[in-house]
Amino acid sequence: MSMNNQGRPSTPNEAGMVAEHKTFTGNKALQIEEPLIFETGRNDVTGVDIDVPLDFKPRLGSHRREAPIDLPGLSEPEAMRHYVRLSQKNYAIDMGLYPLGSCTMKHNPRLNEKMARLPGFADVHPLQPLSTVKGAVELIAQLGRWLLVTTGMASVAMSPKAGAHGELCGMMAIKAALKARGESRSKVLVPESAHGTNPATAALLGYKVVTIPAREDGTVDPASVRELLDDQVAAIMLTNPNTCGLFERDIKEIADAVHEAGAYFYCDGANFNAIVGKAKPGELGVDAMHINLHKTFSTPHGGGGPGAGPVVLSDKLAPFAPVPYVRFEGETAEFIETRAEAKEHGDTPFGRMTAFHGQMGMFIRALSFMLSHGCDGLKQASEDAVLNANYIRVGLADLMSLPFGNRPNMHEVLFDDSFLKDTGVTTLDFAKAMIDEGYHPMTMYFPLVVHGALLIEPTESESLASLDLFIATLRDLVMSAKKGETERFTGAPYHSPRRRLDETAAARKPILKWVRPEPASVEAAE
Amino acid sequence: MRYLPLSDQDRADMLARIGIGSIDDLFADIPEAARLTAPMDLPRRKSELEVERHLSRLAAQNVPASSVPFFIGGGAYKHHVPATVDHLIQRSEFLTSYTPYQPEITQGTLQALFEFQTQIANLTAMDVANASMYDGSTAAAEAVLMAHRVTKRNKAVISGGLHPHYRAVIRTMSELADDTFDILPADPTGAEDILSRIDNETSCVVVQSPSFFGQLIDLKPIAEKAHECGVLLIAVFTEVVSLGLIEPAGTQGADIVVGEGQSLGNPLTFGGPYVGLFATRQKYIRQMPGRLCGETVDADGKRGFVLTLSTREQHIRREKATSNICTNAGLCQLAFTIHMTLLGQTGFEQLAMANHAAAVKLAGMLEGIDGVELLNETFFNEFTLRLKGKDAEAIVDTLADKGIMAGVPVKRIDPVSKDVEDLLVVAATEINTDEDRAAYAAALKEVLA
C-alpha cells in the first residue's frame, strides 16, 4: 500500500532553505541547549534516597560543618537528561574518525568495559588481605608479562597513573641509579620534536633541559647527540617512533653513545603502537620506557583520563623500580609492597609513586585487549595502523605539504602549513573547517619542529571506505582554500554546538566556577 | 580479527596504491638486527567468549567487598553508587572522547568540568578547584611542589596523621627533586605537636583531617601559626563524604585543599583509577597544577567553556611548566560529578550522616570488647582500635578466613613506624547492616578471647 502523500510537499520549501532559522528555545532539533546544574537544580532536591538513622549520638566534637554547602541536586530523570544532553555536544571515536596524531584514538572494545566491571575486579579493595585478592595480583602479573614480552625488557613498574607519571617514574629510576653510583648529573637531552611532558618531567627533577635540534629529515642525528654528551648528562629522552611519525633509524648508535657517556636512554613509548610485534625496544638499547595503556592498548580516553603508564626497565634500572611491584621468579610472581620486602630480594626501590597499586581498572581493560588480539592480532594492528597512515599520505601528498618529503612514515603522517601559503587560511582555520565536515581535527601546531604542523593518526580502526572519504574531504578542503573560499575556513565551524570560542578572553579574566548572581536589591527593583 | 576492518584484499589494494610490494617496506627504518621475524612468544588471538572465560576465572579468585561484612577504608571506601552513574559514563560520547582541546565539539565534557570545579570549590569552601588530578596521593605531592613555587622555600612539614602512602609519595618526590622534608612520627591519637615544627624556612605544612587514624583535627591554630611564618597550610582528606558533616578546610584557613574523590561515583577496583581533588585560593591560580576549565563566549556570543590558563601547562611551557601532568582523571571525575549532582546538598549531608551513624554504632559495639581500646574521641566514619599487644595483621587475616574484612592493619602500609603492630583502622559506611556489625563484633570477641 502506498503512502498517502496528498498535500505533502516532497521537497523543502523556500523558507526551509534560508541559512539562519531561529527557534524560540534556541534549540536546533536534536541539539538542545542545556543550562548549568546550578541554574536548574534546587538545594532541597535529591536523586538518591538515603535512610538516615536517628538513634545515635554524634561523635564529631566541635568539628561540625556550620555553613550550608550550597550545592543543588537533580532528581534522577533530570540528571539523566542533563548528562545525556551534555554528551550529545561531544565528538567521540564511536562517531567517527578521530585523527589526533600522537594520541592514538582507536576503537575501545566494550568487552574490556564489561570485564573491568566484574565484581571480582571492580569491587575489591586495595588493602584487602592478599589471600582474598589472588586473582587481582595474578592479573597484574599477567599484564606485566605481556608488557615484558612485547617490549623485550627486564622488569616493569606497574603503578604510574598516566604517561607523564610513567616518564617521571623512569627518570626517577635513572636519578636513583646515578645516586647509587655516587653521581649527580645535571642535564637531560631532549629533541625539539619531543612531547612537552618530556622537558617538564626532566625539569621537575631539577635537571637542566638541553634541546637537540632535528636534522633535515626530521630525525635525530647521532652526531649532534655525541656533541652534547658529557659527564653531566644523566639521560636522553627520545620518542620512537618520533612525533613526526618517523622511526629514529639511528637509535642504536644513539643508545650506544649515550651508554658510553655513562648516561641512560629514556624512551617515550607514546608511539609504541606502531611497532608492537615488529621490533622490541629492549633490543634497541632502551633503559626505561613508559607505555600508555590508553593509547597502544586501547583503554578509553574518557574525555581526558584516566590513563595508565607502566614503565618497563632494563636490567640496570630494574632494582630501582618503585613499590609496589611484581617480582617474577620463573613461573611464580610475588607482589612486593614495601621497601623492606624489596630489600630481602636485594632490590633498592627509589620509593613510591602513588597510593595503592596503580590503575587496576586500566590493567584489566588492557589485558582484555591483548588477550583478544594475541601475538598475531597485535602485530596485525601495528601493520594496519602504519598502512592506514601511509595510505593517507599518498592520498594527500600532491595537495598538502610533507616537510620531510614523500617517504614512508609510521603510524602517523605529518604535514606543515606551506600548502596554505597565500590562501589567508591558517592551520587552525583548516582544522575548524574539518569540524563542519563531521571530523575531529588532527593534532595541530605540534610537533614544534615544523611550521603550522598538522599531524594525522588514523589508527588501525578505520576501514578503507572511511579513509577514502576522509582523504576526499581533505582534498576538497584544500582545493577550496586554494580557490580562495576563505569564509568556509575563517568563520568555521558553523554547524557545531558552539561556534569558535574566545580562548583569549577566557584566559584574561578567568571564570573558573559558577557564582550565584547577587539577588537584585530592593531599591533597584523599585 | 574482529577489531580490524581491513580485509586482506583491502591491504593488497592499499599497498599497490602506496606503490610498495610488502608491508615490511614501511618498517625499513627499523635496524635490521632489531626487527622481529618470528611471532612474539604469546598466545594467539582469542574470541570474546574465550577472553571472558579467562578473565572471569581470575576475577573469581577475589572476594568482592559486597559479598562479606566489609570494614576496610584507609583511603578507599566502599559506598553505594547509583546505577545512573555507570550508565552515563559509558555513553560513547563521554567514554571515547579525547581531552577537550577542540571546545566547539566537546562542550559536553567541558560543561561537566565547569560544574565539577564549582562543586569542589563549594565543598571545600575554597575559591577555585582544578579539573582533577590522578588521585589523592599525587594531588598531595603536587600541592607540596606548588607550595615550594609560591613560597620559594623547599621544606615540607608532614603530619604523622597523613595517610602513610601519601607520606611516602611526598617523600619520594622530595628526595628525588632534592627538596627537604620533616615527617612527624605516626600519630594515632591526634596529639602531635606540629606547631613547633613550623618555622621561617618551612614552605608548607601538610595535615589530614579526618586523619588516617580517623581523628578530626582542628586546622585553625595550624593555619594561624603557618601564616605567621609565611607558610602554606595544605589540608588533605581521603574520605570526601566527610565534607557533608565536617567543617571544611577552606573556612579553617587552608591555602590548598587536596583529597581523594573515589568515594563518589567510583568503584574500589583494587586501588585505581581514582580521582584527585585540588582546590586553592584565587591568588594562587597561576601556580596551580593540572587542567582548568573556564567560561567564555563563542562567535555568536553564546556562553561556552574552554580549557584555560594553559600557559601553566607542559604542552605550552615545556620545561617551565608548573607540572608535567598531561591528563586529569577524566571519566572518574565525571562519575564523581554525576553522583554529586544526584545527591545535591541534601543527599550529600544525608549520606554523610548515614556514614557517621554507621561508624558510631560500630565503635560502640567494638570498644566494649575485652582487649580493645578505641583511640578516637572524635571521628567521622573511620577510627583506630588498639588490639592490646596483639598482631593486628594476624587478627585481620584470621577474620578474613571467617569471612569478615575487619579493617587496615597499620603495619601493613606503614612498616617503618614504631608501636603500630597492634593498631587497626576500621571504616564503616552506609553499606553496613546491623547484621554485618553484629557479625564483626562477635568474631572479634571470639578471636581475641
From TrEMBL, chain A:
One of its GO terms (cellular component) is cytosol. Its EC number is 1.4.4.2. Pfam families: Aminotran_5 (PF00266), GcvP2_C (PF21478). It catalyses: N(6)-[(R)-lipoyl]-L-lysyl-[glycine-cleavage complex H protein] + glycine + H(+) = N(6)-[(R)-S(8)-aminomethyldihydrolipoyl]-L-lysyl-[glycine-cleavage complex H protein] + CO2. It is an enzyme of class 1 (oxidoreductase). InterPro entries: Aminotrans_V_dom, GDC-P_C, GDC_P, PyrdxlP-dep_Trfase, PyrdxlP-dep_Trfase_major, PyrdxlP-dep_Trfase_small. Residues 381-480 form the Glycine dehydrogenase C-terminal domain. Keywords: Oxidoreductase, Pyridoxal phosphate. One of its GO terms (biological process) is glycine decarboxylation via glycine cleavage system. One of its GO terms (molecular function) is glycine dehydrogenase (decarboxylating) activity. Residues 182-302 form the Aminotransferase class V domain. The glycine cleavage system catalyzes the degradation of glycine. The P protein binds the alpha-amino group of glycine through its pyridoxal phosphate cofactor; CO(2) is released and the remaining methylamine moiety is then transferred to the lipoamide cofactor of the H protein. This is glycine dehydrogenase (aminomethyl-transferring). The lineage of its organism: Bacteria, Pseudomonadati, Pseudomonadota, Alphaproteobacteria, Hyphomicrobiales.
From TrEMBL, chain B:
It comes from the Bacteria. Keywords: Oxidoreductase. Residues 1-436 form the Glycine cleavage system P-protein N-terminal domain. It catalyses: N(6)-[(R)-lipoyl]-L-lysyl-[glycine-cleavage complex H protein] + glycine + H(+) = N(6)-[(R)-S(8)-aminomethyldihydrolipoyl]-L-lysyl-[glycine-cleavage complex H protein] + CO2. Its EC number is 1.4.4.2. It holds the Pfam family GDC-P. InterPro entries: GcvPA, GDC-P_N, GDC_P, PyrdxlP-dep_Trfase, PyrdxlP-dep_Trfase_major, PyrdxlP-dep_Trfase_small. One of its GO terms (molecular function) is glycine dehydrogenase (decarboxylating) activity. One of its GO terms (biological process) is glycine decarboxylation via glycine cleavage system. The glycine cleavage system catalyzes the degradation of glycine. The P protein binds the alpha-amino group of glycine through its pyridoxal phosphate cofactor; CO(2) is released and the remaining methylamine moiety is then transferred to the lipoamide cofactor of the H protein. The glycine cleavage system is composed of four proteins: P, T, L and H. In this organism, the P 'protein' is a heterodimer of two subunits. Belongs to the GcvP family. N-terminal subunit subfamily. This is Probable glycine dehydrogenase (decarboxylating) subunit 1. The lineage of its organism: Bacteria, Pseudomonadati, Pseudomonadota, Alphaproteobacteria, Hyphomicrobiales.
